[in-house]
Amino acid sequence: ISQADADDTTSTGLTSPYTNTTKGGEKIYIRVLNNTTKCINTTNSFDIKINILPKANVVNNIVKCDNNSVGDDKDGFISGFDLSSQTATILGDQSSDDYTVTYHISQADADDTTSTGLTSPYTNTIKGGEKIYIRVLDKNIGCYRATSSFDITVAPLPVIINPVIKIEQCDDDDDNDGVSIHNLTESQLIISSDYQNESFEYYTASDFSTDSLIADPTKFTNIAFNQSIYVKIITSDNCYRTSQIDIKVGASLIADSFMLYYAVCDDSPALNQDGISTFKSDILKDIKQKLLAS
Question: Does this model's pTM top 0.85?
Answer without folding.
Answer: no
